[in-house]
Amino acid sequence: MGGRISPSIMCADFRNLETTIRxxxxxxxxxxHVDIMDGSFVPNFTLGPDFMNSVREMTDIPFxxxxxxxxxxxxxxxxxxxxxxxxxxxQEATIxxxxxxxxxRDTGAKVSVALNPATPIYTLDDILDDIDIVLIMTVNPGFxxxxxxxxxxxKIQKLKQYLQQSGHSHIEIEVDGNVSxxxxxxxxxxxxxxxxxxxxxIFKKDQDLYELTEKFREYIT
Length: 221
Ligand code: DX5
Ligand code: ZN
Known about the structure:
This is Ribulose-phosphate 3-epimerase. It catalyses: D-ribulose 5-phosphate = D-xylulose 5-phosphate. This protein is α/β, with parallel strands linked by helices. The protein has six helices and eight strands; from the N terminus they run βαβαββαββαβαβα. It has a single domain, classed as TIM Barrel. The protein has an eight-stranded parallel beta sheet. α4 packs parallel to α5. The longest helix is centred in the last third of the chain and has 15 residues. The N and C termini lie close together (8 Å). It binds D-xylitol-5-phosphate and zinc ion. D-xylitol-5-phosphate binds next to β2.
């Protein structure tokens, strides 16, 4: 299977959201990546449950919900989660990670854990049976338009080997942050499966979203 595309909706032009969604549907993207920030886990605010509900009324594309919030277990009930969505929580954001993952599992969504650039892979040792996806942050979370943290490329490769050697090769690898066409190609070679496409690749001022998305796909097949 080729790499999958998850466009970061926080990078969209909100004045033309409907047009954006239709272009992404036409380009057959796999998910819509929805960044939720709380001004505490990360120094920024972005989208929330009301916004998500509005987008749900426009499209059936599954959501890839990236919770950059502290104590995500307290807030899961306020989100409309559907089977087939991905829900990601950060390893760093809760002291009850396993319980939180179980709660996501109960919703029928795919269960995903994100690691900040400074968080080691071995912190996943005891929860590998509870997850479907590991999201490697390739920038520090909080803002679009940042530069890749170079060490994260090697981290993707290391994670791929780690999953294979521990008998968990079914777990998929997602990458988020400065996933440009060139970086995506390297990340694909390193073992990434799902690619968050933002301002570095498909959301560029005065350029055609559909065409950039089709072009991006060529780098991750
Ligand atoms: C944060 C976001 C950003 C961003 C990705 O989790 O998901 O990483 O929107 O887009 P870039 O880095 O290409 O601007
Ligand atoms: Zn994200």
